[in-house]
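Annotators were shown the component list below and the corresponding predicted structure, then asked to write short factual statements about the assembly.
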Amino acid sequence: MTETGAATPARRRRQESLIPAGTARASAHVCMAAGCLSMQSDTVFDQLCERVTARGLTDVAVKRVGCLGLCAAGPLVVVPEQERLFDHVGAADDAAIDTVVEALAGAEDGGRSVASDPFFAHQVKVVLEHCGQIDPERVEDYVAAGGYEALTKAVTTMTPAEVLGEVTRSGLRGRGGAGYPTGLKWTTVAKSDSADGKYVVCNGDEGDPGAFMDRSVLESSPQQVLEGMAIAGYAVGASHGYVYVRAEYPLAVKRLTTAIRQAEHAGLLGPRIADTAFGFDVEVRIGAGAFVCGEETALLASIEGRRGTPRPRPPYPAASGLWGKPTLINNVETMASIPAILQRGAEWYAAIGSGKSRGTKVFALAGSVVNTGLIEIPLGLTLREIVFDIGGGLPAGGRFKAVQTGGPSGGCMPEELLDMTVTYESLAEAGSIMGSGGMIVMDQGTCMVDVAKFFMDFCREESCGKCVPCRVGTTQMHGLLERISRGLASREDLAELESLAGMVRDTSLCGLGQGAPNPVFSTLRYFRDEYLAHIDDHRCPAGVCVIDPVDAGAPVLEAKR
Amino acid sequence: MTQATAEPPAAPARDDKRWRQVDVRIRRLGARPDGLIEVLHTVQEVFGYLDDGALAYVSEALGVPPSRVLGVATFYSHFVRKPQGLHTCVVCLGTACYINGAGAILARINDKLGIDAGGTTSDGKLSLLRARCLGACSMAPAVVLDDEVHGRMTADRMEQMLETL
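Structure shown to annotators:
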């Protein structure tokens, strides 16, 4: 990486952003997150660079940026100076690429206005503030956008106790799903005595199917996560951090590794940060495909190089974590919220949100919805606003059936709950959980028994096998759901499923088992008639399940054996 | 599951130059036991899979009991214990992909090539894997063919892509 930054005149290697010598009059931000990249946005970037150079536009920039959010319409290019978004800029689409070049040259048509687009208008960006604005592989870009100011402010003008107070007053809660108050967790770790060190761990093992918030943050603004971790280290008294990222996210790993190297090189991480006695370094650890490692004690075991099986708590990691030392574990999104809170103040952050759920939350919208992608909203919007205003509703012909949050530990919420506000409390009341932020819209063509079976199959396979209720219970529940979906089950089977679900929830060791019955509970609560249609009428109302032919006269009990 | 009938390549010999890459990684990690997973990642990147000889090598180098190395290698689904095909095709079965028809894609591959997830064609050309979620939900259903992500896949397009491999 060249550290000379903006001083070097145009035309760099293609892998790097094209930055003009002086101030850029206009710039094209080309999305280089995994979604757009899979649609060859790297080729779009190359083409734009070539054409801009060929046109002799020496005062415009072409920048590689992270996720622009509207993944459904990729590859995406934004010209921020004009607040215009260009979608579907295909690598082979000369006309589309030319439109962007013309816009950079000063043309006023083409693209769509970002400000008036409902997809963007309802969003409030705190965690995603820099996503799509900065080049994730240039630390200079992050610094120019105000990056590392919060860390400098913390270590030079605040005591650790003041940082703890700020985070506590912000009302921030764990964005990994459980919603534990972040300030409280930090304070506990800060109070834990340890003569030989503490650790800060960032949980980037985003395992929930249907969730890609952490991936996008790590791919789009990795420095922000590192800055949050360093601030956490200062507040709790730790000088070493680990980021644990899934092996499924190679691009996130690459950008994070680059970010660490650049930050150390620039003196933003490492010993004596901002000429103080405080030092902090970060290592990346790569997961190896185990969902259970998102559970904190399993994650710690995995960082230590062992099988990722959870252990009973207490002791909580705050008292005894990595190698028995006090350890702070926060999710990627939580860490990424920290710099803004310190920079703008706890009061500013706490003013966003609703009830006990303060601040913003990033959601990954997917499934049967027009605007699939990444959004960040103030907590307290309704599901309807999210799915229909921001998400643009269902694709033509689709009718809303349910929205699923919280992954395999979450639940499905039906149409009658669309006007419910989204907070930690309301989702729990509705039988789901906030979870890490995956939000999947389902249409009438989705069978809820099949969805429950899908999640149970997931939990059954991902169960680590350490505790019996989860290992055996999930397999038994899956078997019962299989029978129901094939039209072979009786009402007694349904009763057995419900009783087993309660037992697994109450007696499993960790969140995987405790949450595994949730999809069953929630689909039974809102879509019991679908279960009964499979059982009593041997039919799948959505037409998804393959029903075994049953002799109408034969007793059901015989048929299912 | 269809096993590769072709002779599997012999385990990498100790004097194979590729071990140097592994040694570099081990050294960088300070040869500490907690680097086990990182080292196994490197071994798999270098050789394509983890065979018994490789596990024994890692066990010795890191001072970790063989039982624990085997335990870790078999616990994590990312690690494979047998040689993979020339090409790999990963079908994502995350929630968004599942409800958007990932099952039909898997079924078509099974239909055409006779392999299930985890299997390799008898000519050793293609290994079929499935993922729990690639985080590519916005372009569901997603498939990764030789490290390249392809979104909005259909069974027909999948079949065409596999035919041209």
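Statements collected:
1. The CA atoms of residues 161 and 235 of chain A lie 7 Å apart.
2. Chain A touches chain B through 52 residues (CB under 8 Å).
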